[in-house]
From TrEMBL:
Protein name per Swiss-Prot or TrEMBL: UDP-3-O-acylglucosamine N-acyltransferase
Domain UDP-3-O-[3-hydroxymyristoyl] glucosamine N-acyltransferase non-repeat region: from-to ranges: 21-89
The protein's role, per its UniProt record: Catalyzes the N-acylation of UDP-3-O-acylglucosamine using 3-hydroxyacyl-ACP as the acyl donor. Is involved in the biosynthesis of lipid A, a phosphorylated glycolipid that anchors the lipopolysaccharide to the outer membrane of the cell.
Gene Ontology annotations for the cellular component aspect, listed alphabetically: membrane
Family: Belongs to the transferase hexapeptide repeat family. LpxD subfamily.
Amino acid sequence: MKFTAEQIAGILEGTVIGDPNIEVSKLAKIEEGIKGSLTFLANPKYKSYIYTTQASITIVNSDFEPEEELSTTLIKVEDAYGAFTKLLEYYNQIKLNKSGVEQPSFVSDSAKIGNDIYIGAFTYIGDNVKIGDNVKIFPNSYVGDNVSIGDNTIVFSGGKIYSDCVIGNNCVINSGAIIGADGFGFAPNEKGEYSKVPQIGNVILEDFVDIGAGTTIDRATLGSTVIRRGVKLDNQIQIAHNVEIGKNTVIAAQTGIAGSTKIGENCQIGGQVGIVGHITIGNNVKIQAQSGIGRHVKDNEVLQGSPALTYGDYNKSYVYFKNLPKIVKNINEIEKKVDGYN
């Protein structure tokens, strides 16, 4: 799909400096721009590239004045970065603008389907499923019995939503994510063998939740595993049964959270963090990557290390950690001198 500079300026409420009829069909970094592409300049560090880029159109801030001749058409806006982000969102909407029910797919007769939806080929929609308006479910996805999906939610190819789970409005579930798999519940018997404990709860995703590719969220043993409004989960995260994550918390890739732990609001959790079960983490907590959390955490704490210390204590201790061989050597020399005096 091609757009002219004039059309793009209309979307962004910008001003064209150059050829209003020049067309673009792709997006590019300013240093990698080629004919037929659109780019932007927001960071002054990249200013030199605007004189060499081959991009057909460049979005710039309204106060930009070229110091050399340009080969690119400019679109001047108040905020070049914000405008380019808006354009990406617009482009993404067009790219994802699919509708209808593709075949082969299976949609149960008892399922209730909203308006303006898309169900991709080889998708399974189970009994008593409720799907809201403007929902897009891409090919090879699975939606189990009694699932509810709110308006404007997207399930990308290969997403799996097990029975009885509730998905809110404006959620995104990326490819390979699994919502509602059985929690890790096994009980030992007198023979030392493990018997499975039935997991009969569900998972609830509130509105505006994003789930990364390959992330798994286990259903509760009883009750619900709950992901509150605005939570953003990266790829390949494990959320165990009966966990609750407070609103607007963000968690980076490869983090694992054990069962029944409660995480507060507005937390920031780095990659490869491990969190034990049955603890409470407060609001506004920041946890650095690769930390191990084995205790309750108060509001506003910043933690690092494994087992995790407060961020300040960790940095102070690290000075000693890296000098430990030298410190031990000095202690041994002092002990030898003391022994020599005795």
